[in-house]
Amino acid sequence: MASNAPLFERNPRDYLGAPYSGWRLHLFVIVFESDTRAGRLFDLALMCLIVLSVIAVMLDSVASVNTQWGPLFDVLEWLFTVFFTIEYVLRLVCVRHPLRYVRSTLGVIDILAIAPTWLALLFPGLQMLIVVRVLRMLRIFRILKLGAYIEEFSDLRDALMHSRRKIAAFISFVLVVVIVMGTLMYVVEGPENGFTSVPASVYWAITTMTTVGFGDITPKTNIGRFIASIMMLIGWGTLAVPTGIVTAEYTARRTGTPAPTARGCPNCLSANHAATAKFCQDCGAKLPPNQSDAIHS
């Protein structure tokens, strides 16, 4: 049975199917693996080209730079596109299950890296200039390809995935607060002070809680300023919560120590047991299954 884990977490030899012998096997080792000198050089060259192509896209969007060096950027873009197209074809050629790679995360990213330039050829008319510009700016997705070659990206992604339930609970709490406080401000300040509707007031609450504070809507009454002060203090205290959640999970995964879970003991009601714990650390009673493990299994 095929694994349900993302391609980043799977062994390409098992999931995509390495050729049994011949030149395709040698090509597979170079393209998908980094255990050989040729594989490491290939990955290093690919990373450098990805960075250079992204820099070229950003510089090309600067009007003064594009006016002077536009033709050069066009040539570079086609060189990058041809190289990434060849790389994509090589990946399909050297695996026994090419459709799996096409449907995988890395396969989709590869398509996003090369498709805009080729699709731009289908819209040569000036009336489609805006469409072409949008397609060309999608080349910035090439930077996502770097995630396949930096191990820490996988660790951070795993930390975010394992923290998603806690982060979802935190976001739910924030939504409740901004809706309640925004509605309260709409009642207190009213349309005459810029709080023209509940959605506009909720927008003010979000910008205030996140400490952004654009200043386009500001309270005028003393009660409104008091509520705004409370919102600022709440925002200052809650900004660190998701950072702490992800940092704790990331540290636990890097050190090999599973982060404690919120599972409660049905006997003594104590919590914060280790993710791998089967019995209560205080009374020894059997613990319920770890829900995060059940989800990922």
- CATH architecture designation of the largest domain: Up-down Bundle
Main sheet summary: none
**What is the CATH topology classification name of the largest domain?**
Four Helix Bundle (Hemerythrin (Met), subunit A)
The total beta strand count reads 0
Topology, element by element:
Blueprint: H1 12-17, H2 23-32, H3 37-60, H4 63-93, H5 98-103, H6 105-120, H7 129-137, H8 151-162, H9 164-189, H10 198-209, H11 222-238, H12 240-255, H13 291-296
Description of the molecule:
With 297 residues, this protein is an all-alpha fold. The chain folds into 3 domains: 7-149, Four Helix Bundle (Hemerythrin (Met), subunit A), CATH 1.20.120; 164-240, Helix Hairpins; 260-297, no CATH class. The protein is 64% helix and 0% strand. The chain starts with 11 loop residues before the first helix and ends with a helix.
Short description:
The chain is built from 13 helices and no strands. With 297 residues, the chain is mainly α.
Q: Which terms summarize this structure?
A:
disordered C terminus; 3 domains; flat; single chain; 297 residues; disordered N terminus; mainly alpha
